[in-house]
Specification:
The protein contains three helices and no strands. The chain has helices at residues 7-28, 35-52, 58-72. Helix 1 (7-28) runs antiparallel to helix 2 (35-52) and helix 2 crosses helix 3.
Length: 74
């Protein structure tokens, strides 16, 4: 792997933690009760993007994730 930092396990752990706490995060969101769902979706997409570019430098992995995230709101 040419990347000096392996981001994939980091984001996989974030998604796992968010999934574990999804219900609590949803309950804490008094406006529309979906904050946990949204966070799991967003970080799952980031994890997917990082995985797709895991042989690239970390900056490229994050840039790819940013491109995919910006497409979520289109």
């Amino acid at each position: 792997m040419s990347s000096d930092l392996n981001l994939l396990p980091l984001f996989q752990n974030v998604v796992s933690t968010l999934e574990t706490n999804r219900s609590s995060l949803n309950q804490a969101d008094t406006h529309n009760n979906d904050h946990g769902d949204n966070m799991v979706d967003i970080f799952s997409l980031i994890t997917q993007a990082v995985g797709e570019k895991q042989d690239s430098p970390a900056a490229n992995q994050l840039a790819h994730a940013g491109q995919l995230l910006s497409g979520m709101n289109s």
